[in-house]
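Exercise 7.
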Amino acid sequence: RPNMAVVCSGINVERYQNRSAFAWLREEYNRGVALGGLCTGAHILAAAGLLSNKRCAIHWENLPGFSEAFPKANVFADLFEIDQNIYTCAGGTAALDMMLKLIGDDFDDNLVNRVCEQVLTDRVRSPTDRQRLPLRARLGVQNSKVLTIIELMEANLSEPLSLIEIADHVDLSRRQIERLFRTEMGRSPARYYLEIRLDRARHLLIQSSMPVVEVAVACGFVSASHFSKCYRELYARSPQQERVDRKQLLAA
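Solution. The predicted structure, written as tokens, is:
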């Protein structure tokens, strides 16, 4: 009997519905076998009913849909999470970081360092290191006020803040924020906020089976009709067509 079983998963994981596999995972877990999930493997473990009230990690791109599908799982945008006998990581090089953590737990730092030299990595990242590039690098923006505002926006997508509330947070006037965004982002703060909410909506449409109206609410829209209008203006197709196109792509 293995000491650990690891689920490796990638794209379109939300379509995977293998009851036999889910039952096998539950059986092995109940027998004391440690379970791991790489990249979107956490989705498989959650679908098997193994992540309720458990800390877990998943690739940042899949996090919105996962959070909506499995609200009882304590999911984090970390590189990896270890909760008792459950090991999950965000995929990519995070699998290496989790492996090095396991080696360090079972052996010593000397062996970890030797493995690092073999796999050409110069440091062991901590579980809570960020998955994505910092906003400064990702957006090519240097202005600290703009970066703080964008962080506020990204943290408040389901209940968007008003520009007055944002201004109070960063101690700027509305007019100053408008000027900063025009200069740094090439668009108004309202437009930028709308675009990141629609980007979140697109991920939910692709990664979940949530009704369009629930996607709209989860992304801070007051009505499905307003959401559909904004979505069509940005992506040149309706939310419903987004899903149809996705299904056709998967079937091809």
